[in-house]
Design a protein that fits this description.
378 residues; mainly alpha; two-stranded antiparallel sheet; 6% strand
């Protein structure tokens, strides 16, 4: 196995980890964002919270795995992304990593209605804002981040908060929010009954339509107005990592070139549309589980579209095009990639088996009787 193949494998694994995070943690972010819309009283709010309360913490393992994979396999990407996008990452940490755990634990500490309603809004913020911020980050990656490397490969950047929250980035945030709300609503439809289930299905169907529309408009925006990136020089796929020895140009529509070169890759964005449409239809027919499956496939299609569109770019530079980071020139060494691959082959199946076992143990509906009969319930 040569380093060229290892780089491709790790590019695929990185996408798999991000897709796993979107599917697994996406539904509890979406469910939290839907809390004010699907729960009208204290009992209903407790039911919603207890559908995601036992699993959200384990679901966040996927984002830790993704960040760890970037750190180990793509250290230059990790260094650039986490330094330039410091503000959005900090907001993610505050909303998803700090306020959300606290809100679940503290909400039930006091019986005061005001106390609990305040923490309910913190739960909402812990679902709504991360869903938007993840999309904003993806939008910024597609636009290119303002960084470059000097001759000693030291990172130089010109961080701009206004640039990070550009119109296209915010539109990507809307795409991300709609797909996670769709996903979260269908999870609630599986786990709840009666009024909560009806409201969850309604909002998930609304979100599915919003996703189809925003995803389509986003595609047209990329085709007509967004400057993508294209490598013009010959790249040695097996050479040592050095992002400075290449020629890159930026042209509108460049992110569509892979679809022209490999027409079969059009199946990836098609899956994003098809999954959302079938989730919309099947949820209306009362088939919540199948709708959830198609919702998961829609998320995979949307995230896969970004990867297919940008390949071989991982992190483009908007201020010095030749400093853009590619699959071929931003990876760790051969030995690091190989050792990490063996570790992934061993531990990823264990994580999947354990996750499957947890969801099997916790299967079934969450009802008012279940919540009141369980002393450990939130």
């Amino acid at each position: 196995m040569d380093i060229e193949l290892l780089r491709i494998i790790w590019w695929v694994l990185l996408g798999v980890l991000f897709m796993g995070f979107a599917v697994m943690d996406g539904f509890d972010l979406g469910a939290a964002a839907l809390l004010p819309l699907v729960a009208r009283n204290e009992d209903e709010r407790r039911i919603v919270l207890n559908t995601i309360g036992p699993v959200w913490e384990g679901n966040q393992v996927w984002i830790i795995l993704g960040a760890g994979a970037i750190f180990a396999a793509w250290p230059l990407v990790y260094a650039v992304a986490f330094s330039i996008a410091y503000i959005p990452v900090l907001l993610l940490l505050l909303t998803m990593g700090i306020s959300r755990p606290v809100s679940f634990k503290y909400r039930s500490k006091l019986p005061s209605k005001f106390w609990r309603r305040c923490w309910d809004w913190v739960v909402f913020c812990g679902g709504f804002f991360p869903a938007v911020i993840f999309g904003v980050l993806v939008g910024n990656v597609m636009l290119g981040l303002p960084f470059y490397f000097d001759n000693n490969l030291r990172i130089q950047n010109s961080d701009s908060l206004l640039q990070l929250f550009s119109p296209f980035a915010l539109w990507c945030g809307l795409v991300s929010l709609s797909m996670l709300v769709m996903h979260g609503g269908l999870f609630l439809a599986i786990k709840t009954e009666d009024a909560i289930r009806r409201r969850a299905i309604y909002w998930s169907r609304v979100a599915a339509i919003v996703l189809v529309v925003t995803f389509a408009i986003g595609g047209m925006w990329v085709a007509r107005f967004v400057s993508g990136y294209q490598v013009m020089s010959v790249i040695d796929h097996a050479s040592d990592s050095n992002p400075l020895h290449k020629e890159v140009v930026s042209t509108v529509g460049a992110w569509l070139l892979n679809y022209k070169a490999y027409p079969l890759s059009l199946c990836v964005p098609a899956l994003g549309f098809l999954g959302a449409l079938l989730a919309f239809l099947m949820s209306g027919w009362g088939m919540a589980r199948m709708a959830f499956v198609w919702s998961s496939l829609s998320l995979i299609g949307v995230i896969g579209t970004v990867g297919v569109s940008m390949f071989p770019f991982i992190l483009p530079s908007s201020v010095n095009l030749s400093s853009s980071l590619l699959v071929w020139d931003a990876s760790s060494s051969y030995l690091t990639l190989l050792v990490m691959l063996f570790a992934t082959i061993i531990f990823l199946p264990i994580i999947l088996l354990y996750t499957g076992w947890v969801y099997r143990v916790m299967r079934g509906k969450m009802t008012k009787a279940t919540v009141k009969g369980e002393k450990q319930a939130y």
